[in-house]
Fold each of these.
Amino acid sequence: MSVGNKLEMDRYMVRGGNPLKGEVVIGGAKNAALAILAAALMSDETVTIENLPDVRDTNVMLDAMSEIGVVIERVSRHKVKINGANVRNVNIEYELIKKIRASYYLIGALLGKYKEAEVPLPGGCNIGSRPIDQHLKGFRAIGAEANVERGQISAHADRLVGAHIYMDVVTVGATINVMMAACMAEGKTTIENAAKEPHVVDVANFLNSMGADIKGAGTDIIRIHGVEKLHGTTYSIIPDQIEAGTFMFAAAVTNGDITVKNVIPKHLESISAKLIEMGCTVEEFDDTVRVKGTDHLKPTNIKTLPYPGFPTDMQPQAGVALALSEGTSLVTESIFENRFKYVDEIVRMGADVKVEGNTAIITGVKGYTGARVSSPDLRAGAALVMAALAADGVSIIDDIHFIERGYEDFEVKIRKLGGIIEKCGGDIDVQKFTLKTSVV
Ligand code: UD1
């Protein structure tokens, strides 16, 4: 059996009932890191990246880069040196890369630097159909021939020349990808209707620290003047908005009191706003937020939107909290059509939720009851762990390999906050866990 399959058998056992209390330190943003790692190969000089999250997706990205000749030196768990001077192949064949959505960032980086790239069509979480037409449209606009054939995205150009690009939808991936390639195109590129997410800004700041000329990231018009070369840099990745938001909502779900450290509170405003509407207390400090839960969670309505709206990556965690509120809430998913797969699982834990189209109608119940459930995807998996932490009794969460794609030391951080959770591989001994944890 391959290591991959073995990891896929890992699961969590959770005994609910303890409110999560204390401090948690947030790591670097996974979604910024994936783009920044790919972009790092665009220089022939060494790039040092700090505050790198040690999660499955970033490690797969590093392995794929090393397969094509990028020299990777893991200085420490959260720091890596990358040198892309000797890339020997622009065709990524590394099998595991198909599992991560952000593999497409290797196209933007390689196309920008070498005017040529071939990368397997990305996989990632199955949260809906995930087209790449806007990526291809952007690459074509700056002069590349870009196509999908035989399961690969391939792009090549004799010259890349700046252009005016209007994105038909607000897309984080296409904005970042086209921005990377355009950095090394001749002349000026304008991306209109660009995504404004904090990680778009982080990737632009990173590229600028390598000598790129990008203005306007964080607004919906990004202007790029192409440069011939990018140089080395040392750069620290921003904190992960979604990891932070997950722990903030964990305080609401378990009626806890969590101080979430190493965050940028401005990036968390839509999350804080919903928690306050639900009756939680949110205090903001320079790089910390503290969230206190309440006995009487209030219902509210949520619609996911591009930043600064409520993030789709927080929708399941919010849904799990609203299912314990005193009333009915509507949660509308407007980014991905298949993000309610966690609903069937929480219904098995006693929640009262109906999904109609892209809206979940959530009627609050008094509490969850422990059950065996399965993580349908990364964020939904984290949300199920939160439900299990609030539930009466023991739960088993299968398929936690999804959770490990994006959360570093998830169970360790939860245990430090007083949650009762254990990871186990292969055969489970529920009886042993039940007995052991019932005397805690
Ligand atoms: C990124 C994040 C993901 C997050 C999502 C939205 C990474 C690795 N993943 O995904 O966690 O949930 O942003 O914040 O950073 N679309 C098109 N054509 C395209 C590209 C996208 O129609 O070429 C649509 C998608 O179907 C979706 C919307 O645009 O409805 C937003 O997708 P996008 O922002 O691109 O998501 P990802 O970059 O894939």
Amino acid sequence: MITNIESLWHQVCECLQKQLNTDVYSRWIAVIIPKRLESDKLILAVSNDFYQTWLEENYLPLIREAVNRVHGRNMHVQFEVTPVVPTDPATLAGVSPVPKKIVHSRKASTPGAGTAMTLNQKYVFGSFVVGPPNSFAHASSLAVAQAPGKAYNPLFIYGGVGLGKTHLMQAIGHYVLSKSKAHVHYLSCEALMNEYIDSLQNRRVKHFRDKYRSTDLLLIDDIHFLTRTSALQEEFFHTFNVLYDAHKQIVMASDRPASEIAGLERRLITRFEWGLVTELLPPDFETRMAILHSKQKTLNISMQEEILTFIASHICSNIRSLEGALLRLASYASIYQKKISMDLAESLLQSLLEQEKKEPVSINAIQHNVADYFDIRMADMTSKHRSRSVALPRQIAMYLCRSLTSASLPEIGVAFGKTHATVLHACRRINQKIIEDQQIKQSVTKLSQQIDNKKVITLRR
Ligand code: ADP
Ligand code: MG
């Protein structure tokens, strides 16, 4: 048992450093200062309550586990806020002032947007093909672009992956910038969160606030990620109010309606629905054909009509895949100087077509498969039992939900009767176990294959 707090914390840090990636470690753990060690309690200090909440919500189980392992007995771990005197931002506890990615790597833009530079030149109204499944979303976006802050505020666009949400949002941005000197900010929710965290670390929250509260058009993409932190929800709530009251335009895109975003505060849901809510639906056959024709023109290629029909009849779920298919055939034709025949198209697009046939994996199916595999009851997936025989399969199931479905942490949490922090902890733990433990690695690989191929989805009552 270690009684010296410095050496205890030093060893805990070594332990955590092995489990977390460098980015996460330097952002979240290196900034903690060990404060006091009481008989059964370790008190850790952080510089503001955002850190406290974030650490408690996301890393507490992991830290506690490391403390217990190092200390050799069960300890309570508690955070307290001890404001520190501002220092040079760059020297703050090894924290880099450069914005970094936190969870997902898909960053739609560089934080610090505000000019057309961060918008993709391709995403303009002119290149957006309008058809019945997207005509309402398109008309609403155009109306907003023509009269920002006046037509519909906020505009909330939602729909599945690859259906044109980002394209429409950026088209609004381009349009407004081409007609005025308005301040436009387009960024993903993830980038917004990173920028907010950096502003906290660098004592520049005021700057962050001023920046977003003085914009004329705020475009936030993938807003469904806003649930990751309650502090950002709070911040966004106030920014929203300031902009809304000043008749500045807000546009948001999400993969689902606001009311279905698990963990999103009620007051935000209400606000997101104040203006116009519009849905993008998967394209019908005619729209798919029209998109292929339009992309063909842009790419300056010409494919036989029969081939285009083949693509449009088989790739239905999203426009990104549709583009991908056309591009694949076009590149092949150009590299090998070959005309694409039907047989060739079929074989070149095989993997895309298979992908298309697959139904998305559900959380429920994962739970059933894992329960079957480990021969435990389905009820154990949601139970509070902590014995290893149940806890490990449950953690594996959570991990698989995270990697095989697009469900968010809070959604997975709800399905397992746990908090999103528990899910996060489970994912990290299994990630680590896969490296250390050959048997667990095999089980996880086997289960992923089973579930992904939908070979053994036996539903038990
Ligand atoms: P989302 O943000 O909904 O996931 P994107 O806006 O990124 O989807 O669209 C995916 C791809 O499909 C982009 O390359 C986009 O230009 C293209 N796309 C989507 N909808 C259309 C459309 N109606 N017309 C032309 N291209 C489209
Ligand atoms: Mg998008």
